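note to self — DONT lose this again. spent like an hour looking for the file last time. sequence + predicted structure for the chain T wanted, 126 res
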Amino acid sequence: MAGLVIITSNRMDVLVGHLAELLRRPAGPPLSPETIVVQSRGMERWVAMELARLNGISANLRFPFPNAFLESTFRALRPDLPERSGFEPDLLAFRIMARVQERIGQPEFAPLRRFLDRDHRAAKFY
């Protein structure tokens, strides 16, 4: 199926029924996988099993999580993006820590300063 299809419902059986119907229609090269964005591996298994039950088969499907899907989409559009996002937790922690250290003397940071002053171990800052 070409393009992006968004179907809304608060019932999983309705959603997977629409998906099964879409996948029954040939819409692209037969060896190109279909992408179905899911929130968990459990949801991936359930969707795959339901599609197999409804269509008689469930094959050549990709089930990325939302972040992985968006990252691969952005990389396809912008190959020049850096390998690691500046918003990854370990990188973001250092960026935030640097900003806090620059401003720790300001009045609005007094509660944080008192908290950090109680114990001088650097690990507490993380």
